[in-house]
């Protein structure tokens, strides 16, 4: 599979979850473990462009596909417009949910570069945030869309 | 483009020492200086900070970053007090290896407790100024500090913290004699400094305890009993031990776990081990459908929170065994008891007193009952911990709220000398009280004991997180009041029943660690208790209305046993108490034909209270335009713990097909504001979380086990359900700073309840307020 633009091959069992492969074998700690059941969104990655829970995606299902984690969106030196906008809005408290939310938001902006608030909320509805930082996150996505049309 | 936050960082170059007695560092004298408790417990400057030759400052804090931004706020305080740019200050995570012991990070006390850090920094500044003055041969009083550079007023003589770092010894006692900078001289405190932890969290860098990379790390999983009272009958570990990658299977009494080379290996071994066990289960939980009666009927410890004497009419007949399951609101016809006394305002209605002298006899009596269910912390990450036993002793990594108390509890439970135990704090997901963090740390300790020399990293499952972490207690409250013919409050009685709200590690002489209760030689979990009233109380927290009421009789009844494990969850008892008080005030105002806002203001004398209520109402456009059917505003107010933040919330609710909170308009007064955006963020988060509690949350259980074990059986608020939140932060530079993390919880619940009642015309007194309950109330 391709991970964040680089071809990678791993020797793990085909039933291993993609989340464990990313975190353990490839050292990408961005995707987080939250529930292991596809219900919280903390572990989302883009699989061929679609936000997908890596916790309940077995490795075989990712074979030959294009995987993008939050690390693949941008880094401290060249952040993705969404990462910069989240920083500017101080959108987050504990931040554990952020990786998955950024992935959902990135997929949304690719599909719909000028969403309204409703569309942003709907696109993020699979992601849970317990700290209650959702309004700031919606504002941050709107800001990223506006500043980087 | 590099990743930097845009909020302005203040320029330090123009700011000097203010009026601090910079040059003098007097020897101890007889002068009594009252030192904050952090200083008395950790009296040396070097316990709080270190200044390095490379131009950086390290701050050691005993406080834990729980997602609330405390590291940022403490860095701001240190930067200001020392007179350095904030980017030079690094606040290190709490650890028992160094730094101060500040107990638990809880109760919205961190910013208030930071006075100790401020004092230590002021002392350090004075020591450096004295050294600089001596070397440069100038009067220390004439010197100023600008971003760590110490110079005389015209700038001809200068040196810096960094130049002097090697020769100023901070291993000295804090005497409290260097005055902190006056508020006006603070350049960083009061600004919205960007959160220091966010860049890592936005780019997926390892920062959480789940991301720890320790050399030789093994993965651990615990196999918990299937239910709280279950006992292990037999287990055959042999087949599990033979699984590939399994390093150890651990059994100690009813505590079971596996250690494996990989996460996947540990997960499959845990599944296999679970299948290899036979348990005897037992019904030990109370019947969910009659929690009210269970709480009322429990043997309790009763605390009189306030007693001004006589009881109001209805309450006198209420007993603790009433057990009425149905909410009751009774309104006697006006005038039925009004046979004597004055009703014309000559009885001292200035709102200042009324506990003696002439008080009018009540014209109306009202009463009602309010309840809440159990609530889960439901952190977005499951609890996690790591431990390593080696020749140096025991090292533990935890997202605990208190590394020092946890260290003592671990030593006690594991039967080792506390001096051999080190606990490091590592950030976890947001913590809202006493969750499973400490328990997960002890799980790791027990598993790692089987593999000396290798660290074991334990992660809980989502199901264990929801069913084994302590819960916030179910509660029931009876409130009754007498009103004068003009609607004025004459007396108020309040009785609230609950399980205890604290069972933190070390409580009641017990480690208070889950796994320690399951081992061969167990340390059972003691029944949860309540913090003392002086510490804010638990069941009785915020049970006293701030309104002027001549006679109040307020009692908190805490059950002596805890059939469901409960402990501290954000605001403890205040969530229900504020909901009950503020709902009842609305019910009274409505019965008296008065506007809810006007009625509150008529009974509030504290100007800070009046201001938040008034500002929130005005910002929300109170009383609103009833243009749409099923849409209305409701208000709620409280001062957290009676001495913390003032907070008023106006909710706009739409109750047509479902209940939607459209908008929350909030005014908050936290005294002097350290970080305005940080306060707004905390208030917003608290209000949204409270909206989730209030509309959706209730832990479900049968007689044997908790059945809310995933996000489907314990749903929380989703993005499309989150209200718009507008926060106005009132800065009071001359008032002490108080925490903001818990201020919005109760008022938000009350505002939503009041808005729902205004929108649909019936009152739901049981939390959560669901569409089904609204329909049921309409049918009644
Ligand atoms: S961890 Fe994958 S959705 Fe929750
Ligand atoms: S910021 Fe803590 S869960 Fe979203």
Briefly, what is this?
The complex is a heterodimer of chains A (149) and B (780). In chain A, 40% of the residues lie in helices and 10% in strands.
Structure description:
The complex is a heterodimer of chains A (149) and B (780). With 149 residues, chain A is α+β, with helices and mostly antiparallel strands. Chain A has helices spanning 18-25, 59-62, 70-73, 81-88, 98-111, 117-123, 134-147; strands at residues 2-3, 6-7, 44-47, 50-53, 66-68. Chain A has a five-stranded mixed beta sheet. Chain B is of the alpha+beta class. Chain B has three domains: 11-194, Aldehyde Oxidoreductase, domain 4; 209-283 and 378-468, Aldehyde Oxidoreductase, domain 4, CATH 3.30.365.10; 290-373 and 473-501 and 537-779, Aldehyde Oxidoreductase, domain 4. Chain B is built from 19 helices and 25 strands. The interface between A and B is large, with 63 and 67 residues.
How do the helices and strands line up, and which of them pair or pack?
The complex is a heterodimer of chains A (149) and B (780).
Chain A: E1 2-3, E2 6-7, H1 18-25, E3 44-47, E4 50-53, H2 59-62, E5 66-68, H3 70-73, H4 81-88, H5 98-111, H6 117-123, H7 134-147
Parallel strand pairs in A: 1-5
Antiparallel strand pairs in A: 1-2, 3-4, 3-5
Helix pairs in contact in A: 4-7
Chain B: H1 37-41, E1 49-51, E2 57-60, H2 70-82, E3 89-92, H3 110-113, H4 115-136, E4 143-146, E5 149-152, E6 158-160, H5 161-164, H6 198-202, E7 218-223, E8 231-235, H7 238-241, E9 246-252, E10 255-260, H8 263-275, E11 277-280, H9 291-297, E12 300-307, H10 313-316, E13 330-331, E14 364-372, E15 384-390, E16 393-398, H11 403-414, E17 421-425, H12 437-448, E18 456-459, H13 462-468, E19 475-483, E20 489-498, E21 551-559, H14 574-591, H15 596-602, H16 607-620, E22 631-639, E23 646-655, E24 659-669, H17 676-696, E25 724-730, H18 745-760, H19 771-779
Parallel strand pairs in B: 2-3, 7-18, 16-17, 20-21, 24-25
Antiparallel strand pairs in B: 1-2, 4-5, 5-6, 7-10, 8-11, 9-10, 12-21, 13-14, 14-19, 15-16, 15-18, 19-20, 22-23, 23-24
Residues 33-36, 38-43, 53, 55 of chain A line the site of one FE2/S2 (inorganic) cluster.
């Amino acid at each position: 599979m391709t991970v964040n633009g680089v071809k990678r091959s791993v020797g793990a069992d085909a039933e291993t979850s993609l989340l464990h492969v990313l975190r353990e074998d490839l050292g990408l700690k961005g995707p987080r473990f939250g529930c292991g059941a596809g219900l919280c969104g903390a572990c989302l990655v883009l699989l061929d462009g679609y936000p997908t829970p890596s916790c309940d995606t077995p490795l075989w299902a990712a074979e030959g596909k294009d995987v993008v984690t939050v690390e693949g969106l941008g880094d401290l030196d060249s952040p993705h417009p969404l990462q910069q906008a989240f920083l500017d809005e101080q959108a987050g408290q504990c931040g554990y949910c952020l990786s998955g939310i950024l992935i959902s938001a990135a997929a949304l902006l690719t599909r719909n570069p000028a969403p309204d608030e409703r569309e942003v909320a709907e696109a993020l509805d699979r992601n849970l945030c317990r700290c209650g930082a959702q309004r700031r996150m919606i504002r941050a996505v709107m800001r990223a869309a506006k500043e980087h049309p | 483009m590099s990743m930097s936050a845009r909020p302005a960082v203040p320029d330090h170059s123009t700011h000097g020492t203010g009026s601090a007695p910079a040059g003098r560092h007097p020897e101890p004298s007889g002068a009594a200086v009252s030192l904050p408790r952090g200083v008395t417990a950790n009296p040396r400057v070097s316990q709080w900070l270190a200044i390095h030759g490379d131009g950086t400052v390290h701050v050691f804090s005993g406080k834990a970053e729980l997602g609330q931004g405390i590291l940022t706020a403490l860095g701001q305080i240190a930067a200001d007090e020392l007179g350095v740019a904030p980017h030079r200050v690094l606040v290190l995570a709490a650890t028992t290896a160094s730094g101060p012991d500040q107990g638990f990070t809880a109760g919205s006390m961190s910013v208030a407790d930071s006075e100790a850090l401020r004092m230590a920094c002021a002392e350090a500044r004075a020591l450096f100024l004295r050294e600089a003055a001596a070397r440069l041969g100038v009067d220390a009083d004439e010197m100023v500090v600008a971003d760590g550079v110490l110079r005389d007023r015209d700038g001809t003589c200068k040196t810096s913290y960094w130049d002097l770092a090697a020769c100023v010894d901070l291993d000295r006692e804090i005497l409290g004699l260097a005055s902190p900078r006056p508020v006006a001289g603070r350049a960083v405190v009061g600004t919205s400094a960007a959160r220091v932890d966010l860049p890592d969290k936005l780019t997926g860098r390892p920062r959480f305890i789940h991301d720890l990379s320790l050399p030789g790390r093994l993965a651990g999983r615990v196999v918990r009993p299937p239910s709280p009272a279950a006992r292990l009958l037999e287990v055959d570990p042999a087949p599990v031990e033979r699984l590939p990658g399994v390093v150890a299977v651990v059994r100690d009494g009813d505590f079971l776990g596996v250690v494996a080379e990989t996460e996947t290996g540990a997960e499959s071994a845990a599944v296999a081990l679970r299948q290899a066990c036979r348990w005897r289960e037992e019904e030990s939980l109370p019947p969910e459908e009659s929690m009210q009666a269970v709480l009322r009927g429990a043997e309790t410890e009763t605390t009189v929170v306030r007693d001004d004497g006589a009881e109001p009419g209805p309450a006198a007949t209420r007993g603790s065994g009433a057990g009425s399951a149905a909410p009751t609101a009774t309104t006697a016809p006006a005038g039925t008891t009004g046979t004597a006394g004055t009703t014309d305002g000559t009885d001292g209605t200035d709102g200042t007193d009324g506990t003696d002298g002439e008080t009018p006899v009540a014209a109306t009596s009202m009463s009602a009952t309010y309840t809440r269910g159990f609530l889960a912390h439901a952190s977005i990450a499951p609890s996690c911990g790591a431990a390593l036993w080696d020749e140096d002793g025991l090292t533990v990594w935890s997202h605990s709220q208190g590394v020092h108390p946890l260290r003592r509890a671990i030593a006690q439970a594991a039967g080792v000398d506390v001096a051999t135990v080190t606990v490091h704090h590592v950030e976890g997901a947001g913590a809202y009280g006493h969750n499973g963090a400490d328990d997960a740390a002890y799980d790791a300790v027990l598993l790692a004991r089987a593999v000396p020399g290798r660290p074991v990293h334990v992660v809980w499952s989502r199901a264990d997180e929801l069913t084994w972490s302590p819960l916030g207690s179910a509660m029931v409250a009876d409130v009754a009041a007498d009103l004068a013919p003009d609607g004025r409050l004459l007396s108020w009685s309040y009785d609230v029943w609950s399980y205890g709200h604290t069972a933190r590690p070390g409580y009641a002489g017990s480690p208070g660690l889950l796994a320690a209760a399951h081992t061969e030689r167990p340390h059972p979990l003691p029944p949860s208790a309540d913090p003392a009233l002086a510490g804010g109380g638990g069941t009785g927290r915020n049970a006293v209305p701030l309104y002027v009421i001549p006679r109040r009789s307020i009692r908190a009844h805490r059950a002596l046993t805890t059939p469901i494990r409960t402990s501290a969850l954000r605001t403890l008892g205040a969530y229900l108490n504020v909901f009950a008080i503020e709902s009842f005030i609305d019910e009274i105002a409505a019965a008296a034909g008065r506007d809810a806002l006007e009625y509150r203001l008529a009974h509030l004398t504290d100007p800070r209270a009046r201001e938040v209520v008034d500002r929130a109402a005005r910002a929300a456009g109170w009383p609103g335009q009833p243009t749409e059917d099923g849409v209305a505003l409701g208000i709620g107010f409280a001062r957290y713990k009676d001495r913390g933040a003032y907070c008023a919330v106006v909710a706009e609710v739409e109750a047509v097909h479902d209940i939607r909170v459209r908008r929350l308009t909030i005014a908050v007064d936290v005294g002097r504001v350290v970080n305005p955006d940080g306060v707004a963020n905390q208030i917003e988060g608290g209000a949204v979380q409270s909206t989730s509690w209030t509309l959706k949350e209730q832990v479900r259980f049968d007689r044997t086990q908790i059945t809310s074990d995933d996000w489907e059986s314990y749903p929380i608020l989703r993005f499309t359900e989150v209200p718009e939140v507008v926060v106005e932060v009132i800065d009071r530079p001359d008032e002490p700073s108080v925490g903001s993390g818990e201020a919005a919880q109760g008022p938000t619940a009350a505002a939503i309840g009041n808005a729902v009642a205004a929108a649909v015309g019936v009152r739901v007194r049981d939390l959560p307020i669901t569409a089904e309950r609204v329909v049921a109330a309409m049918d009644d």
